[in-house]
Design brief:
heterodimer; A: 540 residues; Phenylalanyl-tRNA Synthetase, Chain B, domain 3; 4 domains; seven-stranded mixed sheet; 29 strands; 28% strand; B: 499 residues; Arc Repressor Mutant, subunit A; 3 domains; 16 strands; flat
Chain lengths: 540, 499
């Protein structure tokens, strides 16, 4: 989730930030994170990219507060003759789609330009997945000769002066030398051709999605008319984005002009006509547990910026999150106010039922606590060094981990030794147990197996004491086990037993070898029992 | 004085005759063990007969490696011997022939260079000090020979040698030794050396019960004296709190669901209408398992989920992209227990509605660990599948659960989750901190989730809240790491969950 900062001054031109209104902003679904002298910071959920621009936010909140309700319509001018973008098919395998528009008669100040750059960055970081999914470019129209083409070129043939640089660079050089080029090189460097925008005089406007040209791609306070493009892979998302941006520019005072896009299929961009979806009053009331009338439905939807007409809703073209009637029903609920709902506990007669395994696990921990054992609760992951020390041959590795914990635990013995080694300063004797899942690979549906395991550790402790605990436990659960002499790495030969249940091995009991204790920096004798509970669960 | 005498225990009485002598002497003369004597003296101190004195001393002694080096020379001496016999020996050869571990060899090189005994040139080691210098004992060697010793008794040269050895692996061991002594109070001086005969009774014996105590009196205990601590066995406090929460769901008529911690992306994400380019599906956010892939479930379900994503289902537009089976086959540690709800819905018999399920289980995130972030935590999950269920009911269930968990004042605000619509965030008011804090998310499953799994779009109320914050709040724990640090001292001390 993203947090967005708006200029407090700009917001207060339209919305008074009283405590009541700040609460309402939170209850609109944009929780207020902080309010400082200069900034209002809010959280935006990933489905509402239309609230990233300050204009979009003000528009939505004004409607929600009842000031300017209903569907806001924008004038979209038909393209002039040369307002055209030609998409060359050679760019399709690299970055296939573009949505674009022209905005005229803007008045840009230094602050406005900063605001636009902030908007661009936030869109890139959220919806754009760091420019991978979409990237936005803005250019001074008067420095461009229309029509524009979107095409791919060999990197060595791409030559222009990138923004904030003093000399001409080729495509490869930009990725190697320019700071922005280096940061986003991974988006292009596997291709042998790079996407660019070129104007009618073959001047390169930008290397997509990396950087604009210093000469034809820098917006300044003198800029009045702009060309805006948005490139990426998902045309649907690109169209919504250009709708969000063009309407924000319109709210700034600009005029929106369409462009003709010549692709495999010809089309116009942007397309700002509202989307129509049906909503049923009955279904709305049923899903929300309300009893509102049609008139109220209409005014609630209007406060969310929609227009309701006889069972249909006209949804603004910048909203990307209305996929289903239920999305509209949520809009109704938000406008109605979550705080106005009356929480009801329905009286459905169902019977509570605990999982058999939970019941048994609970019993086991009661039995063992009764013996004076302390329950521990360790992580399901272990460190590489621990797996190595324990001689784990086929560790189940994670693809990536931000900590040293990179392996799924194959037993509870390793986390136990870690725990004991971290507690040598606690008074002895230490008697602990843990019940939890351990992992193995097998031939199941997922190739992964999970088993519930139980470990009991007594330190200082010996074989006899361990066996007393094992006896007591099995007596309590009314099952019997047998022991077989066994050897196992890390345990003392002649003092290790394999625990058998119905003649199948289910675990080990024994005294830990002093060498193992020393390698884990343990100072006291240790006796351990580890049992897999899988075979036992349904016999108890 | 009589009152003092009447409160003396048998053990204390055994010691009185020897008071004035050293503790060691008292131990020998009384025939009692050290712990008993010290404990008795502690009691005598409470009775103002004596005053205990505690003095701490740092003792320097040999560590595991130190013991070995004392017998077989320090590694730097061994290396020096080698260079002495083979001046200008190449580094690699020296390492091999010295018989030192690579770490020992590196350290020794450094030590000898610093002492100015050798130099390194063109990868060869040469002597750079006269023979008579070389054969002198290093201060470190002299130190090793006199250990163990009290740190304060070392002279400045020996201290320097100690500092240089301290940083090396297990050569030295520094321990605190406690020296206990005592002084008699005036009252003590009066008593000391006396053989006090007492006819007061000590412990109740079976004999006394049988024959009675015949007018005798029991010795008076100092009931205010502290007693040694004992620790009981107990369940981990996190598990205690989970049991409590489980009980609430069971009382509300919910059935427990369980399932794997490692699951396919299909059940964790795809079945929950989470688009395949959603950030949670990236390697850096979740724990994916290397080289593993899962088979997908029943083809009918897979194809319906695919349709829901690509074109939409039940009147939805879907996400409109090409859904990939390969992406859905990836296995990871579940990021939420909602995967269990998805599995439960897929296996549900529509004739058995309404049904209510819950689970409380571990979930995982690929995070760095600090006071507010962990890699695993508990989530409390629930679903209600009912034709008549609605949003007001959802709020009702949540309110009731949190009321039973001890949160009287809660509020709901809009939120967003890929798989619910409407979605809601629950916040509780913290009366002490006077703030609203987030408890977790909930909503009604989207038709795009329910329809492919159940074959029919029915309202399914759903929630999945982090549980650890509630535990931290109850136990007043500020650092998340403490929940699973397994600090035995703290586990012994922490109080029981008493909600």
């Amino acid at each position: 989730m993203a947090t967005i900062k708006y200029s407090r001054k700009e917001i207060e031109k339209c919305i008074t930030l009283t405590k009541d209104n700040l609460d309402k902003i939170s209850m609109f679904g944009t929780p207020v994170e902080s309010l400082s002298q200069n900034e209002l910071e809010i959280e935006i959920f990933p489905n509402r990219a239309d609230l990233i621009p300050i204009q979009g936010f003000i528009r939505a909140i004004n409607a929600f507060l009842g000031k300017e309700t209903g569907l806001k319509r924008y004038k979209v001018n038909k393209p002039k003759k040369d307002y055209k973008l030609v998409i060359n098919q050679n760019v399709k395998p690299i970055r296939p789609h573009v949505a674009c528009c022209i905005v005229r008669n803007l008045k840009l100040s230094e602050d406005k330009i900063k605001e636009i750059i902030y908007l661009q960055e936030k869109m890139h970081a959220t919806l754009g997945k760091n420019r991978k999914k979409l990237a936005i470019g803005i250019y001074p129209l008067d420095k461009i000769k229309l029509p524009i083409s979107y095409e791919s070129m060999a990197p060595s043939e791409i030559k222009f002066i990138p923004l904030d640089y003093d000399k001409e660079l080729t495509g490869q050089q930009i990725l190697k030398r320019h700071p922005v080029g280096r940061a986003y090189a991974h988006l292009l460097d596997k291709n042998n051709r790079f996407p660019v925008f070129r104007d009618a005089e073959n001047k390169i406007l930008s290397l997509v999605p990396i950087i604009n040209s210093q000469t034809a791609g820098k917006v300044t306070e003198e800029t009045k008319n702009i060309f805006v493009e948005c490139s990426g892979y998902d045309l649907n998302v690109l169209n919504k984005t250009i709708n969000i941006i063009s309407t924000s520019f319109a709210d700034m005072g600009g005029e929106i002009w369409q462009m003709r896009i010549e692709d495999a299929k010809k089309r116009f961009s942007p397309e700002l006509s509202p989307k129509k979806k049906t909503i049923s009053l009955e279904k709305t009331n049923k899903l929300l547990g309300l009893n509102i009338k049609e008139k109220e439905l209409s005014s609630l939807l209007a406060r969310m910026g929609h227009e309701y007409k006889k069972g249909s809703v006209f949804i603004p073209a910048w909203r990307a999150d209305i996929l289903h009637e239920n999305d509209l029903i949520e809009e109704v609920a938000i406008a109605y106010g979550y705080e106005n709902f009356n929480p009801i506990m329905p009286s459905i007669s169902t019977t509570g039922k605990e999982e058999r395994q939970s019941v048994i696990a609970r019993k086991i921990s009661e039995i063992l606590s009764g013996l004076g054992l302390l329950e521990i609760s360790t992580l399901h992951l272990i460190k590489e060094a621990e797996a190595e020390k324990a001689g784990i041959k086929k560790p189940i590795l994670l693809e990536e981990s931000k900590t040293e914990y990179k392996i799924l635990r194959p037993n509870l013995f390793i986390p136990l030794l870690r725990t004991l080694s971290e507690n040598t300063d606690a008074e002895y004797p230490q008697k602990v147990f843990e019940m939890g899942k351990v992992f193995e690979t097998n031939d199941s549906e997922s190739g992964m197996g999970e088993k519930t395991s139980l470990i009991i550790a007594l330190t200082p402790g010996n074989f006899t004491e361990a066996k007393q605990h094992l006896d007591y436990l099995f007596k309590e659960i009314n099952l019997s086990y047998s022991l077989k002499e066994h050897t196992s790495p890390g345990l003392i030969e002649g003092r290790t037993g394999q625990i058998l249940f119905e003649n199948k091995p289910i675990g080990l009991i024994g005294e830990i070898h002093p060498n193992t204790l020393n390698s884990w920096r343990l100072k006291m004798p240790l006796a351990v029992i580890e049992i897999s509970f899988e075979e036992i669960f349904n016999k108890i | 004085m009589d009152e003092t005498i009447s409160s003396l225990s048998r053990i204390e009485l055994k010691i009185i005759p020897f008071l004035g002598k050293s503790i060691e002497e008292i131990i020998t003369l009384s025939g009692l063990d050290r712990t008993t004597v010290l404990r008795a003296m502690k009691f005598l101190e409470n009775k103002k007969i004596l005053e205990m004195k505690l003095e701490k001393r740092k003792i320097v002694s040999l560590g595991v490696n130190g013991i070995y080096y004392k017998k077989n020379h320090l590694p730097e001496r061994r290396l020096l011997h080698l260079v002495e016999s083979r001046n200008h020996i190449p580094l690699k050869e020296a390492e091999k022939e010295s018989g030192l571990s690579s770490n020992e060899f590196k350290v020794s090189l450094g030590v000898l260079k610093r002492k100015g005994f050798i130099e390194l040139k063109n990868g060869k080691i040469s002597l750079s000090a006269p023979k008579e210098e070389i054969i002198k004992k290093f201060p470190e060697e002299s130190l090793i020979e006199i250990l163990p010793i009290e740190e304060s008794k070392l002279d400045s040269g020996q201290k320097k040698a100690m500092e240089s050895l301290k940083n090396r692996k297990e050569i030295l061991e520094l321990t605190d030794e406690k020296i206990i002594s005592y002084e008699l109070t005036p009252k003590g001086k009066e008593l000391a050396g006396k053989e006090i005969k007492s006819d007061l009774l000590e412990e109740v014996t079976p004999e006394m019960i049988k024959t009675g105590i015949k007018g005798k009196k029991f010795r008076k205990y100092d009931i205010l004296a502290p007693v040694p601590r004992i620790y009981g066995g107990k369940k981990h406090f996190v598990n205690q709190s989970i049991e409590y929460a489980k009980k609430i769901w069971l009382e509300l008529g919910f059935e427990e669901m369980s399932g794997p911690l490692t699951d396919s992306s299909f059940w964790i994400f795809d079945a929950l209408f989470t688009a395949q380019d959603h950030p949670a599906r990236e390697m850096q956010d979740s724990f994916f398992i290397k080289n593993m892939k899962s088979k997908l479930p029943d083809k009918k379900i897979v194809s319906r989920v695919k349709t829901a994503h690509e074109k939409g289902i039940d009147g939805s537009e879907g996400w409109q992209y090409l859904w990939s089976e390969k992406e859905a086959e990836k296995i990871l540690l579940r990021t939420h227990t909602t995967s269990l709800s998805a599995r439960t819905l897929a296996g549900l018999d529509l004739k058995k509605l309404p049904v209510k399920f819950f689970s409380i289980g571990k979930v995982f995130r690929n995070e760095t660990i600090d006071w507010s972030h962990g890699i695993e935590f508990y989530q409390s999950e629930g679903i209600v599948v009912d034709e008549k269920a609605n949003f007001s009911h959802l709020l009702g269930y949540l309110k009731e659960f949190y009321r039973k968990m001890g949160y009287e004042k809660i509020r709901f605000r809009p939120s967003f989750f890929a798989y619910t619509e409407p979605s809601v965030e629950i916040e509780a008011y913290h009366p002490e901190r006077k703030i609203w804090f987030e408890l977790g998310g909930a909503g009604i499953f989207r038709p795009e989730v329910v329809s492919p799994l159940l074959g029919k779009a029915i309202p399914v109320l759903a929630w999945g809240q982090g549980f650890d914050r509630i535990i931290m709040d109850f136990y007043k724990i500020k650092d998340l790491r403490e929940l699973y640090s397994n600090n035995i001292k703290k586990l012994r001390e922490i109080r029981a969950w008493t909600k």
